Amino acid sequence: MSTGGGREAQLKHTGLRPGWTTGACATAATTAAYTALLTGGFPDPVTITLPKGQTPSFALTAESLTPGAAMAAVTKDAGDDPDVTHGAVIRSTVRLLPPGSGVVFRAGEGVGTVTLPGLPLEVGEPAVNPVPRQLMREHVARVAAEHGAPGDVEITLSIDHGAEIARSTWNPRIGILGGLSVLGTTGIVVPYSCSAWIDSIRRGVDVARAGGLTHVAGCTGSTSERTVTGIYELPEIALLDMGDFAGAVLKYIRRHPVDRLTICGGFAKLSKLAAGHLDLHSARSQVDKPFLAALAREAGATASLAAEIETANTGLAALRLCEAASVPLGDAVATRARDEALTVLRGAPVTVDVIAIDRAGTVVGRSAPKGPGA
Predict the structure, then answer these.
(1) What is the average pLDDT across 164-184?
(2) Neighbours of 3 (CB within 10 A)
(3) How far apart are CA 340 and CA 305, in angstroms?
(4) Closest alpha carbon to 339 in 297, 358, 301, 367
(5) Which residue has the higher pLDDT, 231 or 79?
(6) Which of 99, 218, 235, 334 could bond to 365 as cystine, CB 3.0-4.6 Å?
(7) What kind and span of H or E run contains 368?
């Protein structure tokens, strides 16, 4: 692997161990199964060539050869990436098709099916992304050429317990139903802070736009999702699981605008956005209580109340102090967070409003909607 920059440079500096994508594992399993179908023997380990030229070898977890079909399985090793599919068993069953049929992909048990537009696959297709499809086609063609076969096959991909694992992913939200996706552009999983989550945010925006939605909501968690749904009655595909990555939502929507963006989240997290932080994780940004005290002063707090806010234990404690004094700190935070969001959007044609909640989902602050130049 090159270590020149980007993810690979980060990998070198962190010492994290890379792994293999579901697409690479599926390609290895397909190569082994098709080889066995033509020769009667499974290569084990099976070696494949990835898009950047690497040639990893994969041990087979299971194999089966019956008249007209061969199945091979590979267990995914995601390296040190916190990937929910680490350890998943990816199976490929290959069957011969009549000459001229080409390579046909099917979703077996545990692999999802696309049901909504906005993804790089047509509705009704197995959730096997374009790069893994191409990689499998290339390996089928290579094996076919080696053994004088036409290379017309049906590939049915399955993932053990895939439907269950998929509940921990964005797949149900973006309309991939029945299981996991077969993914990967390089074949290599390079551990990178939250890259999969950020990518899922981008796909969520794509699906919402493709569905014709003009209003989406970036939410920090399930409680904020329930709150914003109750207020605006948005469909599920309008809800972006933003988590801590406010910047990822704003930067992607800046390039792919929607008419209206609502940001809804806990008061403490949104106070970080109000202070100019785009990553709201507690390990990477903290509630700035002097900043909250200054906002409270602007909202009418006395000097003594501002002093209490500066020494409050948590952001929520600061909010409660202001509520007791009828100082609208929640609204002030929401309004400042909205203005920070508009700054990041850099004039994109998006109207923004912000809703701050407490842990129970009660709204403790709201901004008015505001668009560029307003």
Answers:
(1) 90
(2) 11
(3) 25
(4) 367
(5) 231
(6) 334
(7) none
